[in-house]
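In the current project phase, we have settled on a layout for protein records. One protein thus recorded is set out beneath this paragraph:
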Amino acid sequence: MLWLILPLAALGLAITWLLVSDPLRNFGNGAPPVESLTFERTTLSSDGIRVLVRAGGSEPMTIAQVQVDDAYWQFTQEPAGPLGRGATAWIHLPFPWVLGEAHAINIVTNTGATFEHEIAVAVSTPTRDAGNLASQALLGVLVGLVPVAIGMMFYPALRGVGRSGMNFLLALTVGLLAFLLVDATAEAFDLAAESAAIFQGQAMVVLAAAASFLLLMAAGRRDGVPTGLALATFIALGIGLHNLGEGLAIGAAFAAGAAGLGTFLVLGFMLHNITEGIGISAPMLKKRPPLWTFVGLALLAGGPAVIGLWIGSLAYAPQWSALALAVGAGAILQVIVEVTAY
């Protein structure tokens, strides 16, 4: 235990010394501080436009002016005052935005630095009321739960395929999971690039995926290589985490006003999620489980799409979406390893 605590204590002392002594202060050359501002959320309502910004500069920064479509507008900031590194603030603009039009926002700091943000299609942001939540839940069910359940309905027909047919289905499952892995990883890196630099997005994605993979491998191999229902559960978990990311994408598309994009995303996800139901069923062909098992696996695989859609439309942030997709990618990689070893 001592040899485990000692290096951690040494690391803590080194970090404390670095923060207290600030040895880099002597390297300052009088240049203005580096400023960075990231737009994380945009909401539109009858009161105007609100944007959530996060500061990432080396020194506290002050928002001096805000332009909308090249015209200066009065604004209120919550909380008021300079923004330290990593701090967030809501900027409210009483701007009469036009439905369906594009608008450009330009924030100017007291040092003259400018940061631009585009609203591609102006549309009112969904509100947190029972009607909207119910509609989004229904959409999430159509995206995640229904197609997975439809895929599982092929289970009786699949039981008579024989050993070679089962091997083919497992190979098909690995191919599907490999596609989901590539898709989730690429989307996670894209979202990480949109997040504030303070989050170190790309490193966060790699570390989160690795941690997810290792933790699930340790849990799955506790009693040996998972087979049958245990393997199907891991497949459903990995697919569920990926469907969480799909829900985030659809919710963000609708919140941004890209309703057409959201509709095409829904259709595309519904079609390929049917194959996910088949992949979940494949490891259980040798022994038929009770009906409630299929219900539970369908909820595990498809239910997260509802949660993702709620988050994506009401509280979208690129860094947390990237983190969710990275965790999903790690889970999918663990499932690929286990299915290959089955």
Notes: Strands lie at 37-45, 48-55, 63-68, 71-73, 76-78, 88-93, 103-109, 114-119. The chain has two domains: 37-119, 130-341.
